[in-house]
């Protein structure tokens, strides 16, 4: 699951000419550390939903990688 | 193109499906009732038209009913036509909150949830898609008894304008077609006298052509309208 999330985040970063990251830390902030905009987060949400059938933004904002993992482990 | 059309079983929705199919598109029709007219389209355009009976008053289960059970992520959605609507006519002093909420479920809340999921599908497939809402001339020209109905259409028009602004950077367009009064089931309860008065307020002095409304919707969905977004296009015989 963590590998897939890394892959999706890197797809989005690379598409906007940012470098791929090698690893994700649970404390990484999606906006400030990983440089994702609200549109990027929307794409992240739909791609995670397509993969895991879970809408990570359904009940409030998600800020960090750790919060995504928590939603996917529920 | 793959297009979702709500309220496809009769009237304007059925005509929109016909025009889209004539132009070679694939139609995913949604309505409560599965009419003979729609079945006729299915036999004529086999494999290009699909139907699901959905109660569009159920705004809480749009994702499941439409985007999981019918038009899932495997389908790349290019367009969404929000045509299904219900009318609640009365004077304001008789306003019944339950009827009002029921109308908003169908006319406003479900279309908003549909739009949310359609845009999510477009994001997944990176589609520069188009959304068209069907409004009503009553939101622009006042009519006695239509204040509540018109308010629901006004809400849609505002929603469309801001959707256009928000998603324009990704090439997703949103427009509204504003039809004048048409001779459809929705206006069938009007008396001849009321109808005459309504038509007298138009420049062309007649009922709005359902075909003209449907052709405009198809145009807005097509690439021909690639530079049109955030607009309300009146197809109303010049209502004044």
Question: What does this protein look like?
Answer:
The complex is a heterodimer of chains A (74) and B (240). Chain A has a single domain, classed as Orthogonal Bundle (Non-ribosomal Peptide Synthetase Peptidyl Carrier Protein, Chain A). Helices cover 51% and strands 0% of the residues of chain A. Chain A is built from three helices and no strands. In chain A, helix 1 (2-15) runs antiparallel to helix 2 (38-52). Chain A starts with a helix and ends with a helix. The mean pLDDT of chain A is 93. Chain B is 41% helix and 15% strand. Chain B is built from seven helices and seven strands, in the order E-H-E-H-E-H-E-H-E-H-E-H-H-E. Chain B has a seven-stranded parallel beta sheet with strand order 3-2-1-4-5-6-7, sandwiched between helices. The longest helix of chain B is centred in the middle third of the chain and has 29 residues, at 97-125. Chain B is globular, with a radius of gyration of 17 Å. The model of chain B has no long low-confidence stretch (mean pLDDT 95). The interface between A and B is small, with 8 and 7 residues.
Question: Could you give the topology of this structure?
Answer:
The complex is a heterodimer of chains A (74) and B (240).
Chain A: H1 2-15, H2 38-52, H3 65-73
Helix pairs in contact in A: 1-2
Chain B: E1 2-6, H1 11-22, E2 26-31, H2 36-44, E3 49-53, H3 62-68, E4 79-82, H4 97-125, E5 130-134, H5 147-167, E6 173-179, H6 192-200, H7 210-221, E7 232-235
Parallel strand pairs in B: 1-2, 1-4, 2-3, 4-5, 5-6, 6-7
Helix pairs in contact in B: 1-7, 3-4, 4-5
């Amino acid at each position: 699951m963590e590998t897939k999330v890394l892959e999706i985040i890197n797809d989005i970063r690379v598409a906007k000419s940012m470098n791929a990251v090698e690893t994700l830390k649970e404390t990484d902030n999606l906006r400030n550390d990983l440089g994702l905009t609200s549109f990027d987060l929307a794409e992240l949400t739909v791609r995670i939903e397509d993969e895991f059938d879970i809408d990570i933004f359904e009940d409030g904002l998600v800020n960090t990688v750790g919060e995504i993992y928590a939603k996917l482990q529920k | 193109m793959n297009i979702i059309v709500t309220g496809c079983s009769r009237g304007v929705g059925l005509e929109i499906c016909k025009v889209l199919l004539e132009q070679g598109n694939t139609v995913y029709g949604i309505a409560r009732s599965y009419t003979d007219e729609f079945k006729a389209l299915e036999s004529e355009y086999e494999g290009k038209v699909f139907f699901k009976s959905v109660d569009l008053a159920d705004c809480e289960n749009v994702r499941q009913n439409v985007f999981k059970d019918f038009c899932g992520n495997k389908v790349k959605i290019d367009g969404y036509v929000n045509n299904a609507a219900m009318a609640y006519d009365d004077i304001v002093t008789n306003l019944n909150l339950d009827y009002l909420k029921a109308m908003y479920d169908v006319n406003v809340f479900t279309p908003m949830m549909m739009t949310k999921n359609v845009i999510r599908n477009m994001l997944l497939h990176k589609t520069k898609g188009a959304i068209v809402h069907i409004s009503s001339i009553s939101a622009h020209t006042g009519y006695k008894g239509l204040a509540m109905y018109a308010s629901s259409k006004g809400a849609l028009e505002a929603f469309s304008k801001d959707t256009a602004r928000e998603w324009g950077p990704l090439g997703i367009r949103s427009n509204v077609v504003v039809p004048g009064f048409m001779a459809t089931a929705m206006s069938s309860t009007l008396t001849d006298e009321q109808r005459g008065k309504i038509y007298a307020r138009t420049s062309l002095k007649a009922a709005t052509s359902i075909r003209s409304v449907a052709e405009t919707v198809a145009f807005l969905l097509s690439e021909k309208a690639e530079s049109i977004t955030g607009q309300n296009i009146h197809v109303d015989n010049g209502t004044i």
